[in-house]
Amino acid sequence: MRQQEELQYWEKSRTYIDGNTAREFAMQAERRKEQVHQEYVEWQEEEREQRKRHRQTRAAVMKNRERALQISSGYVVFLTAIMAVMVVVFACYLQLHADLNKSVQNVALLETQILDLKNENDAVQKKISNSVNLDTIRQKAMDELGMVYPQKEQIEFFEVENDDYMNQYENIPER
Q: Quick check: pTM over 0.85?
């Protein structure tokens, strides 16, 4: 468009020349018009090509979208199998979690029972120790069973190197 305006301005400004030069300018102007016309035709063809490519691209995109929205039966089967596996894994996880909670509760119950039994055992031990009279036991042992205190020559003393324990390798000799 701008080229046509330039060409018209150029023709108006150069028309005052006489002779061969004016004809040359007229011929150049004519050639220039043809060239501008040829460029315009080429531009229109390029525009048509671009629109045609754009329509083809748009049609291909639409076709791809439609194809993407369609799900094949193999894909559906695959997704269904994956979902089934996930459900089984999740169910196993929940079952294990429930078993763990049950075991923890069972351990807590057993610990409570052990604590109760220890408390009961301590109470019975105190009751027994309070009910035993050592003087009564000594009296019965000496009077009824014939117990006597050892004499000095019957007592043997051992020296222990370590205070923690002693290993006995033989029986203690009798006299």
A: no
